[in-house]
Design a protein that fits this description.
The protein is of the alpha/beta class. It folds into two domains: about 260 residues, Glycogen Phosphorylase B (Rossmann fold), CATH 3.40.50; about 180 residues, Glycogen Phosphorylase B (Rossmann fold, 3-Layer(aba) Sandwich). Helices cover about 40% and strands about 20% of the residues. The chain has 18 helices and 18 strands. The protein has a nine-stranded mixed sheet, with helices on both faces. The protein has a six-stranded parallel sheet with strand order 15-14-13-16-17-18, with helices on both faces. Strand 13, helix 11 and strand 14 form a beta-alpha-beta unit. About 50% of the residues are buried. The mean pLDDT is about 95.
């Protein structure tokens, strides 16, 4: 097969705009696939929040109009070549010049516009991809639009689609009236085997039903979502489409996330020079106002503050965690309940807990570098990137065995000497607490093993190389269908 031409569609892409793991994946996976010889381009909204250093370098290619029922909306198309990958940005002030990427009242209209604009822009940019790679619910409707409204057009007739689930919980569920009012799609598609979902329209379901192939971001999660507990009421469809479902583990960009030259760190270091890592730890303690103690283990948490991430477990035993001789550093935003819990607890435990209710890319890297352990007790975790970053920077992960956490972290076994972290199985606060205690005991009393785990994580390879090959193989199989 000749070189495959792929259009990678995502509602967020790092470093232009990011709220979570999707942005990280969209920022690094296309680059890795491109290195394998595939022709891949990326398209995303031209958000008003994109830093000016990128906006000022964009080239205006032209414009189109996108019709959503009675709406006739302008869409400018801009291009930027960055890191040897071509990016397209779809510009509409009304839909994309907002304070937040998601959460507005008209999300259905916003991302229907984005999805349809992707299809409508192709002739303008002279791009006829073999395959469109759609990501999460914001682009799930593309596959349905192709089948319902574009197949009669020879330009679009042979385009295949892949749909990647980054988190099945967020589905884009809207009133059924948008079927005609926004989507311009006939009622024949509004069935239990189509886009209908409890008498609503479900964008995620559209991606699952109408895409030629489906992938998700870890092998374990690909199996979990076919069960009722993890399947978010879509497990029957995923079982039905098992032969088209791939579980491919996410990676990270090992060039941009390298402790030997990461300028976000206080001091560079490597697996061969761990002592420099501990200079990062002391500087982190200084900056966060914690007692500067090289001997005490720092447990890092970088996460959205939600129950999905295990914060109900942490809340339940937080005082018991802080009774240990440790320091806890939190970075993240989310539910007001957890914000209050951590800020209030930090007020009374200034020597033990630093609660940073914000997000800072620089502080995140400094926590990975300055912490000794990294806690991710998730209820479910499609892949998780935090534990992979923690490996890269020598922070030993403590995780629950679910999703991608299960695929990347294995509990240290004293009999065999195998393993790279500390894990627990049941979603139980005291199981988590006992696992934290085990890790802390190793830190204090088994330094040789601890140093081995630090170096083992840093020398592991969770880059995109292997996964990019798997994506390319999935593309080839999809095009043969």
């Amino acid at each position: 097969m000749n070189s495959i031409n792929v259009l990678f569609a995502s509602s967020e892409v790092f470093p232009f705009a990011k709220t979570g793991g999707l942005g990280d994946v969209a920022g690094s996976l296309p680059k890795a696939i491109s290195k394998l010889g595939a022709g891949i381009r990326v398209v995303m909204p031209s958000y008003g929040s994109i830093p000016s250093q990128y906006k000022d370098s964009m080239e205006f290619l032209g414009y189109i109009y996108v019709d959503l029922s009675w709406r006739h909306q302008y869409c400018g198309v801009l291009r930027l070549i960055y890191d040897e990958v071509t990016y397209y940005f779809l510009d509409n002030e009304y839909y994309f010049n907002r304070s937040d990427l998601y959460g507005d009242f008209d999300e259905a209209e916003q991302f229907t516009f984005f999805s349809k604009a992707i299809l409508e822009m192709l002739p303008l940019i002279g791009c006829k991809p073999d395959l469109i790679h759609c990501n999460d619910w914001q682009t799930g409707i593309i596959s349905l639009m192709l089948k319902a409204n574009y197949r009669h057009n020879a330009f679009y007739s042979k385009i295949k689609t892949v749909f990647t689930i980054h988190n099945l919980k967020y589905q884009g569920i809207f009133p059924k009236e948008i079927l005609l009012d926004l989507l311009g799609i006939d009622w024949e598609f509004f069935t239990p085997y189509g886009i209908e979902f409890h008498d609503n329209v479900n964008f995620m379901k559209a991606g699952l039903v109408y895409s030629d192939s489906i992938s998700t971001v870890s092998p374990t999660y690909a199996q979990e979502i076919k069960t009722s507990f993890y399947g978010e009421n879509l497990n029957d469809i995923l079982i039905h489409r098992s032969n088209d479902l791939y579980g491919i583990l996410n990676g990270i960009d090992y060039q941009k996330n390298n402790p030997e030259n990461d300028n976000r760190l206080y001091v560079p270091y490597s697996a061969d020079n761990i002592s420099k890592k501990y200079e990062n730890k002391l500087r982190l303690q200084q900056d966060l106002g914690l007692p500067v103690r090289p001997d005490v283990p720092i447990i890092g948490i970088i996460s959205r503050l939600t129950a999905q991430k295990g914060f109900d477990l942490i809340e339940y035993v937080l005082e018991e965690i802080l009774q240990m001789d440790i320091q806890l550093v939190l970075l993240g935003k989310g539910d007001e309940h957890y914000r209050y819990i951590f800020e209030n607890t930090a007020y009374w435990h200034k020597d033990k807990l630093s609660a940073n209710i914000t997000f800072s890319d620089t502080l995140a890297q400094r926590i990975y570098a300055g912490s000794d352990m990294f806690l991710m007790p998730s209820l479910f975790e499609p892949c998780g990137l935090g534990q992979i970053f923690s490996f890269r920077y020598g922070s030993v992960p403590i995780v629950r065995e679910t999703g991608g956490l299960n695929d990347t972290v294995s509990s240290y076994n004293e009999d065999t000497g195998t393993g790279n972290g500390f894990t627990f199985t049941n979603y139980n606060a005291h199981d988590m607490l006992n696992t934290i205690r085990r890790a802390v005991d190793f830190y204090y009393n088994k330094k040789d093993v601890w140093n081995l785990l630090v170096q083992r994580g840093m020398r592991a390879d969770f880059s995109w190389d292997k996964s990019a090959h798997e994506y390319l193989n999935m593309y080839k199989k999809t095009l043969r269908k």
